[in-house]
Amino acid sequence: MDLGLKGKVAIVTGSARGLGAATARRLAREGASVVITDITEGSAQEVAASLRDEGLSAHCVAGDITRAQDVERLVEETVSTFGNVHILVNNAGFPRDKYLVKMSEDDWDQVMNVMLKGAFLATRAVMPSMIEQGWGRIINISSRAHFGNPTQANYSAAKAGLIGMAKALSLEEGRYGITANCVAPGFMDTEMVQALPTYETIKERAIQSQPVKRAGHPDDVANAVAFLASECAAFISGEVLHVTGGRYG
C-alpha cells in the first residue's frame, strides 16, 4: 500500500536509537526524507549514515530539544536541506522513576522539559511552514503510562500532557490541513528498557497483563506513526492510537 509519503520531509526527535530510530527508518522507507535529531550527536550521525547506506534520504542535526535556539536551528537546517517540513514526530523523552516522596525537582523538571517543553518548541517551530503549505502531521509519542503508573508521576504526567497538547492542536490547526495525533506504546523491547536491572521482571509482568502475549517491538510503533503520517489518516485528528497488545489500564 502506498502511504503517500514520497517527497515528504519528516523530523523525528530523539531518533538516535529505539522507537525514534525505528520510526525514522520506517518513514524513510516509505519515501520521506528524514531528519535524525538527538542530543547524542555520534549515535544520531550513525543512524543517518545507516539510512543513507540503504539508499534512503536522511540528514542529521544534533541538538538539545529543550533549547529554543537549537530547535530553531533544527528546523532552519531541515528546510535548507530538504526544502520544507511536513511531518513532526515528538518522540524525545526518558523516565526518571521514583516514588513521589523521593522524587527531586530535577527528576520532575528533566522529564517535563524534554517531553513537554521539547514538543512545544518543536511544534511551534514547524507550524508556520505547515500552515503556509496547507498540510502537516504532528504525531506525539505518548505512552500507556498516561493512565498512571506507580513511581512514574513525572513520566505519566508528561505523557498525558502530550495527549492534551495533540487534542488542542487538532482543534487549532485542522483548518490548515494539519492533523495532530498520539501514539501510546505499551511495553516495548528497546535498548533503554533492556538496560534496566529489573528488565526481565518488567517484561514478564507486562506480557502477563496484555492479551497479545509478546513484547512490543519498535517497528510496531513505527508502523503506527507511518499510518498516522499518511494520506490514509487524513481525516483522523485528536486521537490516541494505543500500541499495547490490548493492554490499557
Automatic annotation (TrEMBL):
Residues 8-186 form the Ketoreductase domain. It catalyses: a (3R)-hydroxyacyl-[ACP] + NADP(+) = a 3-oxoacyl-[ACP] + NADPH + H(+). Keywords: NADP, Oxidoreductase. Pfam families: adh_short_C2 (PF13561). GO terms for molecular function: 3-oxoacyl-[acyl-carrier-protein] reductase (NADPH) activity. This is 3-oxoacyl-[acyl-carrier-protein] reductase FabG. It comes from Pollutimonas nitritireducens. Catalyzes the NADPH-dependent reduction of beta-ketoacyl-ACP substrates to beta-hydroxyacyl-ACP products, the first reductive step in the elongation cycle of fatty acid biosynthesis.
